[in-house]
Amino acid sequence: MRHRKLFAWTLSFSIAAGLFAGIPVNTVGAETPVQQIEILLPDIYNSIYVKAYGDNPVIEFSGESGTGIYFTDTGTTVGGEWDYLEYFDQWGNAAFSQNGKYGAVNRGSKQVISAEWDKIELCRNSAVVYKNGKCGLVSMESGNIVFEPQADKIDVFEDGSALAEKDGKYSIVLQTGEIVGNFSYADALPFSEGLAAVENADGKWGYINLEGKTVLDYQYDGATSFSGSSAYVEKDGKMYAIGTDGQRTGNLPDLAPEYDPDGRLTAPVFGGDVTKAACIRLYGEEKYRYAGSDGTFLTDAVCLIDAPFESDGTAVQRTEDGNVVLKLINSGSTAAVETVLETDGVIRKTDYGNLSLFESKMRFYNSDGTDIFGRDIYSLVYDYIGEDLITGKTGSGYICVNAGGEVLFEDPNDMLSKIDEDTWLV
Predict the structure, then answer these.
(1) CA 395 to chain centre
(2) What is the pLDDT of residues 116-145, one digit of tens each?
(3) pTM attached to this predicted model
(4) What is the C-alpha to C-alpha distance for residues 354 and 13, in angstroms, rounded to an integer?
């Protein structure tokens, strides 16, 4: 055994590795070392690579025997005989291959799923594993098999449960491994607030509890999951909200049903940081209006597309007269919608850092309707766009403005050189 040291630097919450003792290491650039990692490896391993960044980076090492990983937070290693290792995903999982089979490892729990599967798909805290044409579930937290491979397809829900399909029928698999429904449903949604919407063989939807017992009868043509003690259902061509007791709730009138690409009913999206508002279509109408969660209409504007308010409180909408940008405003306990931009051209909403822009005939606006550049722009210079500035190309050169629209510089010579993040040579 011999000691090999890996020097690490931090840069924008990333780890940059240097070169030490002749060991090749991937480098992403930095100057001042703030952390030194010391790894004890056998001589057979000859390379080190930063595989996952963050406060506790994960180091991949490899040699003639194969690949493994070193956890810097615990100082432990796993693997060493793997053929290939994928990058870690947002949930801290990474798949690896060994002798034509697949396994996985989690950087948090340090659990390793052995390479015994024909195929593996990672999602949140679960791994969908395949063997002999069937799939099951393995927990990435415990490493245990939650659901033996027997399904044709498995979709993992956000809450960790899963929808398993077998011979065209569905069951809900809980995180405990319990199977709800015994593959008797035509479709199903995840549990929420103790209830799950399921579809029977006759195409009707109802709600079951965690024990699989029917709580709300199969009487709906469509249904959504509960959120905030209410869910939306479709019946007789109308969509409306119900409570967990099945009684109608809320102040919205009958709505026209909306569906996702899979043909499932979708609930109105009440969005916006200032107050909750949704773009809805009333029953029997083809056009959309904006309403608050209390059922009041926030504007008289009649729109042609379903465009909910986004987190910045704006929505890009199309009307019969042209295109508009709407802003959700709040005054005390009341809410309203105002038009901040209106044009007969095309509006495309973009987002660079904290600066939201609207484009119409290559004119750019911020969310209050202010013309950012004050002139036509041929294109944006994407290398020079940040949270506090934006650069565009005009007919004669470049113009750079800050988030408030103040012109920082104009270059009529069509020359722009970036020295660093804060300096340009013009």
Answers:
(1) 38
(2) 999 999 988 899 999 999 999 999 988 899
(3) 0.65
(4) 19
